[in-house]
Amino acid sequence: MNYHVKPKKNFIYTVTIPGSKSISNRALILAALSGKKCTLQNFLFSDDTHFMLEGLKRLGNEISFSTTDNTVTINGNKERIFNSVSLFTGNAGTMMRFLSSYIITGTGKVTLIGNERMNQRPIKDLADSFIELGVKVEYLENIGYPPISLTVDSHNFTSLVHVNVDKSSQYLTSLLLSAPYFEKGLSIKLKNRLVSRPYVDMTLSMMKNFGVSVKENKIENSFFVPHGNYSLDSYLIEGDMSSASYFLAMALISNSKITINNFFKNSIQGDKKFLEIFLKLGGKIIDETDYSITIVGCEEYQGIDIDLNDSPDIAQTLAIVALFAKSPTTIRNVANMRIKETDRISALKNEIIKIGGKFLEYEDGFTVIPNLSYNGALIKTYDDHRMAMCFSLVGLKIPGIVIEDCNCVSKTFPTYFELFDKIYST
To answer: What is the percent of the chain where pLDDT is above 90?
Structure first.
């Protein structure tokens, strides 16, 4: 299904963003491990969370939900004795990685199988940590990549494990989430520089809310997770700051006034950084409460030079904003964009050049040089939800932009184009 974008500017619009995918899937793991009844409020129902819900059900957790109220209630499986089970993860990186560590808190053999793209995304750095712990790991096709089988018949794990974190912070988050349920707890030593640090801070904050505090030793580049138990009756999931970034960018590009509801003022998400970028470029906050914000764009703005190592998921949105700046924008230190749903740096280059833009590609970043004019085009999305959403913004300024396979947004924001449609009625 293709979406034809129509130009629009200087409008007034109100939108309610969905709950955070990153927080929803972390909360599912925390609630399941607790072995108790826990209700998750403002839950995101999307492809990625669907795969996680189904996986946890097949592993013995009782789950009920209401899509009307956006709630999920989970009764965690205390026993976690798994027979031979195969689970399909789609292209959900959080499920593949977080559920892996959940599995090794139990016993049995579980196989995780992704779709074609997921089976091209590396998991060796996490699997090596499992092997060090004492888990039997089998690669079923290509070494270092899914599909992967994990066999656990004992929890006499070592109390210290090392992990590579220069490609993804999710490997560390996966170990952190499950470590309280290892008999000796766990000390985790990082082998290299951590990327996407705010996602780890989010994990630590959520673990503390569920009753387990982690000690970090910054000098030794390590974390200690004590043996313990999660316990929480209910948890409120924040609105998704990555989703909010598209509407912040929309206001900037179209010089419009937009109110974003379900926008948490004191968010624990690193992607709230896009609000800082929005303000730096000349956007303004008109009104703000604890759970909403009203912003307005500006007539013109300059490009910036920025390191987004901590927040690579907003790099695509900023790349689109950069197309309409008065000077070039350079985004640095985002090499891990290449192992996401697609190679996002190459995908951006292909589609920006297609509309007449100028794009300089580096191994770990890129520069967008604004052009005086652009042309319409059919935008390939590469089955990447973020490509679809960010390029929809181009069409607010450039006639003839068509988003191919727009349904790929179901991964994290199923109603995105329904909400986008409503700007034309304002």
So the answer is: 98
SS3 content of the chain, % helix, strand, coil (to 5): 35, 25, 40
Q: Where are the domains of the chain?
A: 3-19+238-425, 21-217+228-236
Dump pLDDT digits (tens) for 236-249: 999 999 999 999 99
| DSSP result, 80-138 | -B--SEEEEEET-HHHHHHHHHHHTTSBEEEEEEE-TTGGGS--HHHHHHHHHHT-EEE
Catalytic-role residue among 313, 343, 384, 421? 313
CATH number of the structural domain 3-19+238-425: 3.65.10.10
The neighbour count for residue 280, using CB atoms within 10 Å, is: 12
Q: Which pLDDT does position 83 carry in this prediction?
A: 87
Whether 3-19+238-425 shares its CATH topology with 21-217+228-236 is answered: yes
- CA torsion sign, 48 to 54 to 58 to 60? positive
Contacts of 358 (CB under 8 A, 6+ apart): 352, 368, 369, 370, 371
Is residue 172 a contact partner of residue 190, using CB atoms and an 8 Å limit?
yes
- Band of pLDDT at residue 185, cut at 50, 70 and 90: very high
Sheet harboring 365-369: ordered strands across? Answer: 305-307, 329-332, 365-369, 358-362
Tokens 């779709």 correspond to 115
Say if domain 21-217+228-236 classifies as CATH 3.80.10.10.
no
Q: Which residues of 337-350 are buried (b: 16+ CB within 10 A; e: fewer)?
A: bbebbbbbbebbbe
Residue found under tokens 């712990």: 133
Cα separation of 356 and 353, whole Å? 5
d(CA 119, CA 125): 15
pLDDT surpassing 90 at residue 426:
no
Start-to-end CA distance of the chain, whole Å, equals: 25
Report residue 363's pLDDT band, with 50, 70 and 90 as the boundaries: very high
In 211-257, alpha helices (H): 241-254
pLDDT tens digits along 117-150: 999 999 999 999 999 999 999 999 999 999 999 9
Q: Clarify whether 313 is annotated catalytic.
A: yes
- Dist CA 204 CA 171 (whole Å): 14
Name which of 183, 196, 50 is nearest 107 in CA terms.
183
- Where residue 30 falls among pLDDT bands split at 50, 70, 90? very high
**Distance, C-alpha 251 to centroid of its chain:** 22
